[in-house]
């Protein structure tokens, strides 16, 4: 974008028009990138399994569970173990989703973009906040046995 550094250049109608045209093009580019990022975030799905192979979960970009598969192995363990397996897979999926959201933001907005960093940070906080609660619950459950 051209620089309009002195008053005389700014008052020149041609220079002002060029500056505004360039500014508008820049805004349009940023808006298109933001729309592309939003679309990719909306389509984001992440799948993860627990370490014992009991559960597989799929979440969307908000960390909401959209799929759950349990293996036949769940019949050989206590329900509390199955619950912990699901929560473990969910935490892993959310961590992966936060990483993927960061990658999407950087790929679409650019590595130096404040918008990309802000979006990625907000998504990480939203996705990891439930993890802290789940980890605390797991800890309480393990202490109870």
UniProtKB/TrEMBL annotation:
InterPro entries, sorted: YbaB-like_sf (IPR036894), YbaB/EbfC (IPR004401)
Biased composition (Basic and acidic residues): 119-145
Name of the protein this chain belongs to: YbaB/EbfC family nucleoid-associated protein
Domain of life: Bacteria
Pfam families according to UniProt: YbaB_DNA_bd
The species this protein was found in: Paractinoplanes globisporus
Region span, Disordered: 109-145
């Amino acid at each position: 974008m051209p620089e309009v550094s002195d008053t005389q250049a700014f008052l020149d109608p041609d220079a002002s028009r060029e500056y505004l045209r360039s500014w508008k093009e820049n805004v349009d580019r940023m808006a298109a990138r933001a729309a592309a990022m939003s679309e990719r975030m909306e389509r984001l799905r992440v799948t993860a399994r627990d370490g014992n192979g009991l559960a597989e979960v799929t979440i969307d970009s908000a960390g909401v569970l959209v799929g759950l598969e349990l293996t036949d192995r769940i019949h050989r363990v206590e329900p509390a173990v199955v619950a912990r397996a699901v929560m473990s897979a969910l935490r892993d999926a959310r961590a992966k989703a936060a990483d993927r959201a960061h990658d999407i933001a950087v790929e679409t907005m650019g590595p130096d973009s404040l918008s990309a960093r802000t979006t990625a940070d907000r998504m990480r906080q939203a996705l990891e906040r439930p993890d802290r609660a789940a980890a605390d619950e797991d800890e309480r459950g393990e202490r109870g046995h």
